[in-house]
Write a structure and sequence with these properties.
The protein is of the alpha/beta class. It has six helices and ten strands; from the N terminus they run E-H-E-E-H-E-H-H-E-E-H-E-H-E-E-E. A ten-stranded mixed beta sheet has the order 1-8-2-3-7-4-6-5-9-10, with helices on both faces.
């Protein structure tokens, strides 16, 4: 059994172990950014599929990205509208980002703040974590901690008291091109930038 209490899950994540916990979209498989390689190995995920950096607040994430004053303003506007929530922004990465998060193209990083009390509680104490959906690469995301425990027995999963099902839809992914947003995946939040100037 690898189901653990919230305290032990947080301690495990801080110690560099792989953990899994519910979010507002699909359950996350997570590790501290420096240990992101564990996620690629566990999921049998190809190196060209970068991970998402998830945190309890936007402030925790801005250190990992870099842009002009104007770009920050544009990013901030979108974030204020949709965070916390099911929106992942792919932005230029700063030097602070461990290359292992995005081995093929370490110049960009996806960032997100989940609208989930449990996820927020964990992330507030661990700091930003490298995350992705809990499943083998190419398979549908697993929806419950029990399924995750079966498929990933080595991962610390959160003991669930009356586990509340999230929406089960992955986050929407929008990438900053330097001048505007490009939707890489429509998901939990419907975005349409076609009307933007």
């Amino acid at each position: 059994m690898t189901q653990v209490s919230l305290t032990n899950l947080i301690a495990g994540a801080r110690a560099g172990l792989l953990v899994s916990f519910p979010t507002d979209t699909v359950p996350a498989l997570a590790a501290i950014p420096e240990k992101a390689g564990l996620i690629f190995t566990a999921k049998q995920r190809s190196q060209d599929k970068p991970l998402i950096l998830m945190a309890a607040s936007a402030e925790d994430l801005w250190l990992y990205v870099k842009g002009s004053k104007n770009e920050y303003k544009v990013w901030q506007e979108l974030v204020e509208k949709h965070w916390p929530g099911g929106l992942t922004l792919v932005l230029p990465a700063s030097e602070r980002l461990p290359k292992v998060m995005n081995p093929i193209d370490p110049t960009t990083i996806g960032i997100r703040v989940p609208n989930s009390a449990i996820a927020q509680t964990i992330l507030a104490q661990t700091g930003p974590l490298a995350t992705t959906s809990a499943n083998f690469s190419g398979q549908p995301p697993l929806q419950t901690m029990a399924e995750i425990e079966t498929q990933f027995p080595q991962v610390l999963t959160l003991e669930c008291q009356g586990e509340k099902a999230a929406m089960g839809i992955p986050s929407t992914v929008a990438k900053w091109t330097g001048i505007n947003w490009q939707i890489l995946r429509q998901g939990a939040i419907k975005l349409d930038f076609s009307s933007d100037k």
